[in-house]
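This entry is retained here.
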Amino acid sequence: MSVENHRLLTTYEIKKLGEQGCSAEDWSQIFVHEDFVAESVRGCRFEGTVRLGIFAGTIETESGITKKCGIYNSYLRNCDIASGVYISEVKSLAGYHIETNVAIENVSSLVVRGETSFGNGILIEVINEAGGRELPIFDMLSSQIAYLALMYRHDMAFTSAILDIIGDYCRTKRSDRGRIGTGARIRDAHILRNVWIGDDAVISGASLLEEGTIMCCRESPAFVGEGVIAKQFIILSGSTIDSSAIIHKSFIGEGVTMGKQFSAENSLFFANCEAFHGEACSLFAGPYSVTHHKSTLMIANLCSFFNAGSGTNQSNHMYKLGPVHQGIFERGSKTGSFAYLILPCVVGAYTVVMGKHYGNFDSSDFPFSYITEEKGKSELTPAMNIFTVGTRRDSEKWPKRDRRKNRDKLDLIHFDLLNPYIAGKIRNAIHILGELSEKTPKSQDYVTYKGISIHRLLLKAARKYYEMAMKVYIGQELALRLGTPDDNATMNTVRNLLNPGETEGTGKWVEICGLYAPALTIKSLMEKVKSGEINTIPQLHEALQKIYEGYSSSAWKYCSYLIEQQTGSEISEITPESLVQLIDDWKSNAIKLNNMILKDAEK
């Protein structure tokens, strides 16, 4: 709001305001727009420096309800209020810059007290409740930045550098003046203290919001509803926090829905998470993580694309040393009703955990598995989840359930079910199962691997299922690369289509909480952070965006490497016979897989 467009009140306007029940600590500190009309301000008390716009016309305060612009029966101190605003029955409004088309009514307290960063820079103890992976939250935090800052602590130079970048950004957010963005609606709320409110945000019936930011936009507004209590928080675009949710020292990303008395402390929730009824403590909930049930506790875990069954619980506390343990649920994993784990544990990608488990295990080498409790032991059935209808349904539903409408999305998400990261896990599983099968005597019923039991008779069968999945993966990537070749295409044309170029991708791949990338590419990014080449949050987002956009070419580089390993020849010299064999393998195994999924669906 420009000071140049404002003037002092005239004697007539001061008299008129007084007649309308208004008073001021010092009328000379009240500045108004040159076209200000006093009739639209009634029953108000002004203290400190206040700037007022033009309050003409009407405003829709909520759907179907229109009211006349103006300020009524409210207390204002040190505020700048733009034109086209409706403010009514606000007992205390202090320290805010209020943009146009804002409606605020029936609020007890909406104030900024002293200098604050509005939740930016609040340090939370995530993943490990006892500390060691502390993270400052901020309004441009993505699942990738959080993962890098938390999960690469062995590289102390990188950790120090990325935390410095975050700290520099958070310091720019410090101010003694808050903002209520264009189009915001605040009604029937009790106490809002030191809260930055973005464009088109809706706050309706909240009990207490303190030290936080609600960052959103017209395309993707955020909603904070009835009975919500939130302290030291960040809430981003498209999220809905409602029905008495309790939030403390937590980050709520884009498109998250939370409510029905859910409680979150020291936790992160990224794109499209859903959280109802239960409780989260020191939880890193990556994109599409879901917990819907009462008596469900998620504590000291990292997960993504995760579904918690009713009554799911974990123990991270050995009682003598404190809550020092942590767990990882890799992408797409699930728990059955009343599943229980004693941490530390690692659950492999797309794995289902059922029963109560009192030992520590690591099943990350075996994606698409079932983990059950048999006679007090944790038992692994490898590859079982490859051909279930649930896995197919999950992989297809996630892209359709993206609630994010904002143009620039923070979390970078690849949805491919079969991809270089998973393919690398499958290749490793094939190798491990082969070795275990050869070395395990036939007199032995079970083999133990990283704390979990596998029935000897399953070793060869599981290996076969993993091999099937690999053939499907290679074939579908090959078909995607070739597209529909021209009828007149020569073998040289085909080889040119299959040329992967000079991109990275042949080595190990990692999943950075939704983003698939070659490990060397992530290492290169980390080196740029350590050297100072990347030293701001926007630069970090830009570098991650380039990795995201380069996924297809890097993924094909990996797949072409697999083809070369399988055929024994360079991709540039692949023979028609080898190509036909790969496609035939794909077709036959894809049909087998689909038939197995259909059979599972019939159940």
Observations:
- The mean pLDDT is 94.
- The radius of gyration is 29 Å.
- The chain has eleven helices and 44 strands.
